[in-house]
Amino acid sequence: MTDTLTASASPAQSPAPVYTVPQERRVVTAIPGPKSEELQHRRLASVSAGVSSTLPVYITKANGAILVDVDGNQFIDLGAGIGVTTIGHTDSSVVEAAAGQVKDFIHTLFTITPYEEYVRVAELLAEHTPGDFPKKSVLINSGAEAVENGVKIARKYTGRRAVAVLDHAYHGRTNLTMAMNYKAMPYATGYGPLAGDVYHAPSSYPYHDGLSGAEAADRTITYLEKVVGATDLACLVVEPIQGEGGFMVPADGYLPALQEWCTANGVVMIADEIQSGMARTGAYYASEHFGWIPDLVLTAKGIAGGLPLAAVTGRADIMDASQPGGLGGTFGGNPVACAAAIAVFESIERNNLLAEGKRIEAALTSSLEQLKTKYDIIGDIRGRGAMIAIELVQPGTGDTTKEPNQAAVTAIAKFAAKNGVLLLTAGTYGNVLRFLPSLAVSDELIVDAMSVIDDALASL
Ligand code: PLZ
Questions:
Q1: DSSP-H helix ranges across 3-74
Q2: What spacing in Å lies between the alpha carbon of 29 and ligand 1's midpoint?
Q3: What CATH number is given to the structural domain containing 73?
Q4: Among the atoms of ligand 1, which is closest to the Cα of residue 244?
Q5: What range defines the domain where residue 443 resides?
Q6: Which of 36, 57, 139, 443 is most solvent-facing, going by the fewest CB within 10 Å?
Q7: Distance in Å, CA 144 to ligand 1 centroid
């Protein structure tokens, strides 16, 4: 079993994890290596060209914060499958829970014959999502499906049609969510007709707009009132920290001001916490950092340690407005994924993982601040917990126009990969490097990865 063994310790203290893969970077071939090249060749002949890969090294094993490829290279994983293996790859508690569930039963379909694991996940979500009021959930398979369901539920509850999102948002790849993304390319171009009644409102992007939370909220609300009309608006869907957009942290007060306006106008405000949720940012949900209590919260990615599971959770009256049979899906709330999710919630508690998020934030930001004093193309450092990004600008524009520097982002990610560090890019202009490691990443691994990034910056 590819699990993480844990040493026994007193119950008061969380045991130090013992990893099945040494937590170290190791580059033993060219990247990609010969075996990866061979697999890439097969892949190009059999997998749609529409599915791309950031780094075509083929993985055979992953544990903690390390990925091992078919050529024996070990990568420090600063992406965690885009924020999915938040508690670490093949965490022993997740592996054991999923394996145990596979032996008991793998599928019945909750909407045919239910089981406790689904109910338990709904209880845990009610407990850990922001807000102290009765909450209910529906479980589905993916982030985009959570967004789709959130919109469905809000439309049913309000009897209204329009959906609003923010500039720089990312919400998925289904027909509705394609229309909700900011970037047409690559997500929507050529895939129309897109869903209608989706409106893109200005967001809060302090590094560029310089607006206070109140000013940015005024701008967003003016757009919603003038362009959409409050009485037609079913929901406003917002990522508390925008993910694919480049980890934009909104100005203080922005999110609560929008929630206040939504509540006053009968609009359901939905937090897309698909990337930012599940203990990633040093809080269970990033909304908490901003004092935002959303009506509905969307969870996916990190909830089940890598197994596909997602949820819409929120105010019981909104969630109960749907007719019986109106929500569901064959695999939604699969028992194996639910068993894994219960283990993830337990691990967050047992191993005090909210503190790990804060530790990683401190380690990442202190290293990045040092790099910022050396390299003027680092324009902005932002984020929370294990969700930190740097926005790169053209030399000399950091205090003025902040021109996007996509070339530097691409070059650094490539340099890092060649040296055993998997780094993700982001940003509307491809101008952001994001650090999205699992909470299992040690300070030593962060320091090592940062030395590679320092070399990458020096090489530009
Ligand atoms: N909402 C905030 O980050 C997924 C996209 C990966 P799914 N982001 C990673 C890719 O290239 O497809 C995401 C997100 C936010 C929704 C989604 C969609 O989640 O599970 O990919 O459907």
A1: 34-46
A2: 32
A3: 3.90.1150.10
A4: 3
A5: 34-87+352-459
A6: 443
A7: 7
